[in-house]
Specification:
18 helices; globular; Rossmann fold; eight-stranded antiparallel sheet; alpha/beta; seven-stranded antiparallel sheet; Glutamine Phosphoribosylpyrophosphate, subunit 1, domain 1
């Protein structure tokens, strides 16, 4: 979810680039940088952390005549968040910014190293600028060199490249990562990853299609399709409402964020998946030395993702795992042994109760790890190690993509530890990694499913409550589904393990009790089905979510057939999120800002 901006024109390009990056802050980042070419001379600035650090570095830099410039906010994928790894990346006379991942960068880098090229960063992006300059020596023009370079790249990318030999030209290419260009009556050209940086600067924009590449000059916008054919820009009028533009046409930020899970999970996976192992460059392997137990601690939605992790760590990593509610753990005089890795989970990294438990673990001498979405947050600064989830800014108070990326990180971490502990075969780890690569497709919201849920939601606006039920990892998902519904609809909902129904809760069963049943085909299906049938026999209203048709269900939300229960988990996650959203919409509630709730709970 990192961001790109670019500018060609007579105005103060530094301010335009920094302003554009500020508009992209909501996407999330851990470092930022700009490069400006003016009068044949480059000026480049980079900083880790927030944009204010970059603004401080550039405070004495001014552009007051024609220039071209590119800028970038980065989430670390290949290489840690450092200034050297921040974009733009430099060759001998060129700069590049890039979103996405170059899958064949290792092979390209090997050849470039043989040619005597020196690399300054650990990133995949740096190969682009060096490959371009290599091609520049064997082609007739800068554009031919750029075109050849793009043909040699495999993976997803949005690229802007500037070079001294063409000081009035910005080269661009787009494949699988968003980018658009805007124009105005002054012949200025603006690039960005989304609409918001262009509002107020442009009147018309062209959204690039996958495979598009080309260049801009003061007088020309040249676009070529992936088969090399030149094509006319397809301009549309740019919205003037920044809030609406940030919503990208969705009714609510929560709805947008549900749909964004495809992209943020892909970002979470970037650079971390190899053929038969998971790599976390940010982790020192010694973190796990002498560790015999993992203790997870969190609140709310993060607690539910951590509860999911307990199943994965014990099943795949074969390591004893326990979980604590942070607000309880703080006050019960817990016993903490130094062979325990203490893991805290928080979207913001500032959750008060969770932060205090981290301080307790540090004081007790435990090794600590934080799973977090915000770099440089209090937890990230305090813990021994950190894995960032790369969910981007989440504006809806009810968490969606933060949960999705946390579970994705935990699944990867369980395989990382399984490899380290030799708990799974290489073949099984490779199979699981193949499944992980399919998660982004599993969270894509289909029009048919959304419309189906929108229609059936009108039958779930009354009654005396909801049971969300599931077994194994689907129990924490049931808890999360119930929490989402409570948060934004204000209807009473509880999550239960399916097998617990007969131990008391089934006494509530009647037609006004709505049961949302999670029935995965590949995990304890018959057991869970039997539990739902007991509720159906007591006349509870059943809404089943499954890939397998269930004849006792009053309503049925079909998910796609999946290879594995973890893919079913993500498919059902989307279904319960959309169901909560649509019930809340029908009740006329403020979906993004539910009553009594704050996004980041920084007090007890």
């Amino acid at each position: 979810m990192c961001g790109i901006v670019g500018y060609l024109g007579q105005k103060n390009s530094k301010e335009i680039l920094l302003g554009g990056l500020k508009e992209l802050e909501y996407r999330g980042y851990d470092s930022a940088g700009i490069a400006v070419l003016q009068d044949g001379k480059f000026e480049s600035f980079k900083a880790i952390g927030k944009l204010i650090n970059l603004e401080e570095k550039t405070k004495n830099f001014v552009t007051d005549k024609f220039s071209i410039g590119i800028g970038h906010t980065r989430w670390a994928t290949h290489g840690k968040p450092t200034e050297l790894n921040a974009h733009p990346h430099i060759g001998s006379e060129s700069y590049v910014v890039h979103n996405g991942i170059i899958e064949n960068y290792a092979a390209l880098k090997t050849e470039l190293l043989k040619d005597g090229i020196t690399f300054l960063s650990q990133t995949d992006t740096e190969v682009i600028v060096h490959q371009f300059e290599k091609n520049l020596k064997i082609t007739k023009s800068s554009f031919e060199a750029f075109k050849k370079t793009i043909s040699q790249l495999e993976g997803a990318y949005a690229i802007l490249l500037v070079t001294k030999g063409k000081e009035k030209t910005i080269f661009f290419a787009k494949n699988g990562s968003p980018m658009l260009v805007g124009v105005n009556a002054e012949n200025e050209k603006y690039f960005a990853s989304s609409d918001t940086p262009l509002i107020g600067h442009c009147t018309d924009v062209n959204y690039f299609e996958d495979g598009d590449y080309g260049y801009v000059t003061p007088d020309e916008l040249a676009i070529f399709s992936k088969d090399g054919k030149k094509q006319e820009p397809k301009f549309t009028k740019l919205s003037t409402n920044k809030l609406s533009a940030q919503k990208d046409g969705f009714r609510f930020f929560m709805e947008k964020e549900i749909y964004e899970q495809v992209d943020v999970i892909a970002d979470t996976l970037l650079g971390r998946l190899h053929d038969n192992e998971v790599l976390f460059d940010e982790l020192d392997p010694t973190l796990f030395e002498g560790i015999n137990e993992i203790k997870l601690c969190a609140c709310g939605t993060s607690y539910h993702s951590a509860l999911t992790a307990t199943y994965l760590f014990e099943r795949y990593s074969k390591i004893k795992t326990s979980i604590e509610v942070a607000s309880e753990f703080r006050y019960r005089s817990p016993i903490m042994s130094k062979d325990t890795l203490f893991v805290v989970i928080s979207q913001s990294g500032e959750t008060a109760d969770t932060l205090e438990t981290l301080k307790m673990a540090k004081a007790a001498g435990l090794k600590t790890l934080v799973i977090c979405n915000v770099d440089n947050s209090s937890m990230v600064r305090l813990a021994d190690a950190c894995i960032l989830t790369r969910a981007g800014v989440e504006k809806g108070v009810a968490s969606t993509k933060a949960f999705a990326t946390q579970v994705t990180v935990f699944w990867m971490l369980s395989l990382y530890l399984a490899k380290k502990n030799k708990a799974l075969s290489n073949e099984e780890i490779a199979r699981q990694i193949t499944l992980l690569r399919e998660v982004p497709a599993s969270v894509k919201v289909s029009d048919d499913m959304h419309e189906r849920i929108k229609r059936l939601s009108k039958r779930y606006l009354h009654g005396h409550g909801f049971f969300f039920i599931g077994r194994d990892v689907f129990y924490p998902l049931a808890l999360e589904g119930a929490l989402k519904l409570k948060e934004i609809s204000y209807l009473h909902a509880e999550g239960y393990p399916s097998g617990e129904m007969k131990h008391g809760p089934i006494a509530l069963a009647d037609p006004e009790l709505f049961t949302i049943a999670l029935l995965p085909q590949h995990l304890l299906y018959d057991k869970a089905k039997s539990n739902v049938e007991e509720l159906s026999a007591r006349d509870s209203t059943i809404c089943a979510i499954s890939a397998v048709e269930f004849d006792k269900a009053d309503d049925f939300i079909a998910i796609n057939k999946c290879k594995d229960y973890m893919l079913e988990f993500f498919e059902m996650m989307v279904a319960v999120q959309v169901l909560s959203l649509e019930i809340s919409v029908r009740l006329g509630n403020d979906v993004d800002m539910p009553r009594n709730l704050a996004k980041s709970v920084t007090v007890e």
